[in-house]
Amino acid sequence: MEETIEFKMKKRKKGEKVERLHTDIPGFDELIEGGFTVGSVNVLTGAAGSGKSIWTQNMVANFIRNYKMKVLYMSFEQPEWEIIDQGFQFGWDFQAMIDEGLLKFVALDSQELFDFQQIDDIKKLIVGGGYQVVVFDSVSSVYDSPISSTQILNSADRGITPQTFMEIRRANITAFFNMIKNLVVTVICIAQKVEGKPGDTTDNVIEFKGDSLTLFDFVEVAEQIERTVRVKKMRKTNINGVTHTFEFTQNGVVVQRKEV
């Protein structure tokens, strides 16, 4: 008989102060009233090279080092060893965090992800592991992954067209985010933006499902790359929507705040 896992929903009493998850990125928490809302789904989006993945890894390191939080990092793009090596450049010892049991990397295949069984498996992994923060890097890899030849053949055998298959996959992904919003975890979703295409992500479903939307960008200024960040949306939070520059230092990300 399979073990039954109880999933608890986060409830907040009327007038109760919103609980925040501090990112401890200098200059950023002040822009979002102290941090992300605990239990929220937060989307970080931008073009390739805008710095959103390193920014996310910086937050992961801070969550673990400063607050001993348990983080599940689900990657569709970078292998575990590559993220670990990248962390060493900024003094983030992800391997030590893994050994301590506070960080777990899971490599996922976007071609095979998000049928109902896999959604259930991920739920069990999150709750059974006691993870407080879950990272998806990147959710666009799932939305935009092409249909494999095997999937086309299997769908054809069942009388399902490729267009219907894509709609089913989108529906499953939507169901996944509906599920995860009911868990007591804070979710960080990295998404891609393609220049010249409308919308802040390659698929606007995640924009509406997310409780917050943070935009990353970069421009070349006098042969230097200037990266910027702007919080476009964050529920239960007063934001000013101003674009701020940020830079990578030896210790991680630092935001240069603009006074308004």
Overall CATH class: Alpha Beta
Count up the domains.
Answer: 1
Record the strand order, biggest sheet: 5-4-6-7-3-8-9-10-11
> Approximately how much helix is present in the residues?
25-40%
Q: Which regions have little confidence, pLDDT < 50, spanning 5+ residues?
A: 1-13
Q: What composes the largest sheet?
A: 9 strands, mixed
Question: Could you give the count of β-strands?
Answer: 11
Strand content: 15-25%
CATH architecture descriptor text = 3-Layer(aba) Sandwich
Shape: globular
* Mean pLDDT metric: 83
CATH superfamily: P-loop containing nucleotide triphosphate hydrolases
The CATH topology annotation reads as: Rossmann fold
Calculate Rg over CA atoms.
19 Å
Helix count equals 8
Order of helices and strands: EEEHEHHEHEHHHEHEEEE
Structural class, from secondary structure content?
Answer: alpha/beta
Distance between the termini: 60 Å
Essential attributes:
11 strands, 8 helices, two-stranded antiparallel sheet, Rossmann fold, nine-stranded mixed β-sheet, globular, alpha/beta, 260 residues
Brief account:
Helix content is 32%, strand content 25%.
What does this protein structure show overall?
By secondary structure, the protein is of the alpha/beta class. The protein has one domain (36-219): 3-Layer(aba) Sandwich (Rossmann fold), CATH 3.40.50.300. It has eight helices and eleven strands. The chain has helices spanning 52-67, 80-88, 94-99, 116-129, 139-144, 149-157, 162-180, 205-209; strands spanning 20-21, 36-37, 41-46, 71-75, 103-107, 133-137, 186-192, 212-221, 224-234, 244-249, 252-256. Strand 10 and strand 11 (252-256) form a beta hairpin. It is globular. The termini are far apart.
